[in-house]
Amino acid sequence: MTALPLWFEITSLIVLTLILIADLLLVLKRPHIPSTKESTLWVVFYVVLALIFAGLMWVIGDAQHAVEFLAGWVTEYSLSIDNLFVFVIIMARFAVPRKLQQEVLMVGIIIALILRAIFIVLGASLIENFSWIFYIFGAFLLYTAFNQAFGNHDDEGKKDNFAIRLLRRRVAISPDFDGSKIRTTIRGKKFFTPMLIVFIAIGSTDLLFALDSIPAIFGITQSPFIVFAANIFALMGLRQLYFLLGGLLDKLVYLHYGIAFILAFIGVKLVFHALHDNQLPFINGGEGIDWVPDISTFASLAVIILAMAVATAASLIKMRGDAKAEAAQGINSDPRG
What we know:
The chain has about 325 residues and is mainly alpha-helical. The protein has one domain. It is about 70% helix and about 0% strand. A two-stranded antiparallel ribbon has the order 1-2. Helix 3 (about 65-95) crosses helix 8, helix 4 packs antiparallel against helix 8 and helix 10 packs antiparallel against helix 11. The longest helix is centred in the last third of the chain and has 36 residues, at about 295-330.
């Protein structure tokens, strides 16, 4: 695989950072509730931008770079949508005014980028020095996939974590929001606003999702640049996607099964990769196992897209069936019928 030129990597990161800064400034300068049309246009813009970026990687690098980026981007985008479910719960739980939700989401995205950058650096260092780390990554993703598919997520985002409980005990919190301010003054006394708790809740959620997403994408590519670029593109447009999907998120009932399947698939791929390049003395005498299949990035991309498509289609079919059942029940219960 041909290495990407350093100038392309540096230029890409600078341009992407400038786009994120411009997006943040836009939110701060013109806080509002985006319409469905506006949200759709922004989401389409970021998706097209990601596809153009993949095309540039193909031209400047090669097809392998482009496919690794696309597979990583789709995986991270899927996990980011899962992240949105918890964001919706947090917004509702703390009664964040809708006009302030854009700013909260933007702060959450920035926190997510910082945390993922840290995990990417740590992950790349671990992979470079300890090849057996793929066993741990694979096992962790398999556990996460099982929990995603069969765990109880009813309380996810609804209960205060340790940091928030400690904050509530030690810090004076005002009963109401004061715009997007973190500090406010009530009758001459300083208080923190509920916005501080919301930011901590969003940040701690981002931390948990970073723990899932970084091992997942390292199962597709070991290039730190591609990993970081895929994460940036997955998080760009997430704010607009939140407003676009709106109440549809809780109706995509099978989406978490699709995400679980993706995590399990990548977990198996990581274990296969670890066995293929095995250096642990107690496994096959420290030698790699040649008969273990090597799942290509092209196959990974196809599986990831298919899993999300099937989960989304199944959710939409169920949603339509439920709507018809409710309509039929309404007709049958109509006293005029």
